[in-house]
Amino acid sequence: MKLRNNVKKIFIAATRQNDGKTTVSLGLISALKKRYNEVGFIKPIGQRYLIEDGLKVDEDSVLIESFCGLKDELKYMSPIAIEKGFTERYIRNPRKSGLARKIKKAFTAVSEEKEAVVIEGTGHAGVGSCFDLSNAIVANMLGSKVVLISSGGIGRPIDEILLNAALFEKNGVTIAGAIINKVIEDKYKKVDTLVRKGLKRKGIEVLGVMPYQKPLSAPTVGEISEELGIDFMCGRMNAHNLVNNILVGAMEPHEAWNYIEEGSLIITPGDREDMILMAIGSFMLRSQATSKIAGIVLTGGITPHKSIDNLIKKSGVPVLFAKDDTYTVTSNIHDLVVKIKPTDTVKAEMAIKMVEEHINVDRLIKKMA
Q1: I need a labelling partner for 222 at 20 to 30 A (CA). Which of 92, 134, 177, 285 fits?
Q2: Residue 208 host element (H or E)
């Protein structure tokens, strides 16, 4: 199948998962829509999918289709979703040509009458090699240059970018540039200077350096419930509260009070009534609908005394009820991978603003294939 050659396109890749591909894709599409009449998006291979209209589609495609108002069908924006058992079945019965045709068909549909298309990869350059469709192979198949994203630091992102660049270049793909994401504020100036200088020595241009934004990595109470399968006990109307800090109720309430920050999630056994009352008090003392307490997770499958339960429900604080012990729940929440959801308007707008302010979009456009 012959692909269009007159459409501008760029493949957004990364050195590892969760480095910020979707953040950059979202912001870049928004920026491109200000410069072009018709812009498209495709994520050829997705690892996290939703069921939309009976189809398995990557959740990032759903986000961008919803927030950016793109008109293409989701089945073309997300042609291949890697479900459980996919890799095992492929290794037993390889069928690369069929998958490749599906990707090319989807790209042809997405790029129809478009002036620019953003292609989002998945994971590092080699992801997908086990079924013969690594990011490097797909970028080559679609005739696209690549922008590589890596997270913070100096030495590590340079090393990882060069390692990934080697695989892309081996597959005949040109590196258009690099973006460094999640740089800590007090190290921003040093990282910006040294990474640009270090990669320039290796022939790679840095197109942007983006600061770490904690809210983009913060889950809401609702996301914790959804991702970990922990039921709401009450307060679902405040499920949108952002969790910026986790506080385990393993100390006296007056001591715990000193550690409460804006957006704190209190995790405590259901029989720690003193901690529960302290958390409720903090929530009810909020001013102008702002509370330092984002919510409470009651652990151990222990239900509070009826009188305490009534106070919780009257307070409006979002409370999750977990059967697992405190350590397990805390570990699971700590390890939670946070993705921007279609309903996360604030996060999406923050991502768009960050791309506009910290990435040289016009320079990137000039380097698009």
Answers
A1: 285
A2: strand 206-211
Contact 347, 215 (CB under 8 A): yes
Structure tokens at 70: 């793109």
Measured CA distances, 209 to 39, 67, 141, 180, 184 (Å): 24, 24, 29, 5, 11
Distance CA 131, CA 86 (A): 9
Phi-psi region of 51 (alpha: psi -120 to 50; beta: other; left: phi over 0): beta
The residue type found at 77 is M
Beta-carbon count within 10 A of 254 CB: 9
Q: Which amino acid, one-letter code, is at 291? A: S
Walk me through the domains of the chain, giving residue ranges and CATH numbers: 8-216+340-367 (3.40.50.300), 219-334 (3.40.1390.20)
